[in-house]
Amino acid sequence: MYRIADRSQLVLEDFKLPFSGRLVADNRWVRTARLIPWELVEELYAASFRDENPDGRPPLSARIAFGALHIKETENLTDERTVAYIAENPYAQYLLGLLEFRTEPLFDPSMMTWFRKRFSPEAIAAINEEMFRRANANETPKDPPDDPPAPESEPDEAPPEAENSKVKPQSGQSKTENFKLANENSGALILDATVGPADIRYPTDLSLLNECRENIERMIDEIWDRTPRVGHKASYNRTKARKNYLSVAKQRKPRKAKIRKAIEAQLDYLARALGSLDKLIAEAEGDSLPESRKARLKVIREVQKQQTAHFADPKAPIPDRIVNLRQPHVRPIVRGKAGASVEFGQKITFSVVDGFTFIDRQSFDNFNEGVTLIDCVEKYRLRHGCYPEAVLADTIYRNRENRAFCREHGIRLSGPKLGRPKANELEADRAQAYRDSCDRNMVESRNGIAKRRYGLDRIMAILPDSALTEAALNVFAMNVAHLLRALARLLRVAMQYLHYCGYCLGCRF
User: Fold this and answer.
1) 411 contact partners, CB below 8 Å, separation of at least 6
2) Which domain holds residue 394?
3) Which site from 2, 117, 273, 483 is most exposed, i.e. has the minimal number of CB atoms within 10 Å?
4) pLDDT tens digits, one per residue of 25-79
């Protein structure tokens, strides 16, 4: 039978900490602090400052800045909730380099914007590369044997034939480097491209023109009192223009002819509004519009130019098409996916090596990912010192130039060969293609995890540089989690080996 317990809350001083007053070394934030290359973070952070006023207020440390960004992306929080999370979590404060627990906020949430400006996408990529290099430099324990080893039967010296069959390590070289010397090509490079959508509504020409018109009307209202004009502020009825837009926007499936007629009306309203605004700016005293309004006005003029040309010839392409006034750098990227055929954001090229993800190309402008294969392979060679043995990529990467490049450097490119398959090679090629398609699922998994878990499916940053940095931080946080899981697996393997061996770590490793 359930017994009702005392509902009175304990005194705060009597509340016992689960770690007995000390932090637990196995906590994920403690282990994360050992993975991040803080020296490089400090160097990149210091390079972003200019020594114009050395007597000013000293900035926050690089560890606080980068650690706060990493916590935000790992927990998928807002800037305000990130500051609150740090103030409530002693392990998070340990990651940020604090020596003691502090209950007050370390900084204002608005500082997160400046932190993102301090770390460019190139800086995040450099930190990611260094973390990968350090993770691969550590020697990993061997897999546990099938049978328990017998220490008394181990020979003191290796037989000559076994000794000659191995590549002797040279001085100053690790086991990985010696393996690469013995094998010209090694490893597998998995490539794919995705889109990090921006936080904007799905744009239409009609809604975009209506938003431009409303922005111009607000600018007219701001500078109207500073001009000698009286009477009507516009040469059209604002209420009628709004109703004209809503009569089509509220319909579930309006006809194309009705949409085109509404767009024509909004273009006319927008042209009249811009004409009235230009006259007011000429008559207003002093600087009529702030810099933010001037930038928005420049974007609106470009939208009017693009939409007018598109209305005259709907089939003509529109270079650098603007789809959002607040984020004019966002471009439509045709993907042809089942959920959305067109996505609006930044296009990213992923390369995955042993579960570790790199961003090889990142841009708001649409590009053909097929032309990035050679650059990705060259970056792989810089990281590992050799070309990959195989490149697992989608069909769009298998053009003639990429095939010739891979054939020249002894790289196997996934997918069937060009031409009619031979009878004796058909079965082997099918088996190899099936294995490649299974192995290529790794990059699809990384893509899905980055979007669903770390927020790459909707980038909340508005500024273009901040949006690129946030996407790079998402991938960095995913790689940190991957390394933490890998270290946990290595620990389990080591413990399993000890169970088989019966000896301590000191005698076996």
Assistant:
1) 185, 377, 387, 388, 389, 390, 391, 405
2) 175-193+346-460
3) 2
4) 889 999 999 999 999 999 999 999 887 666 778 889 999 999 999 999 999 999 9
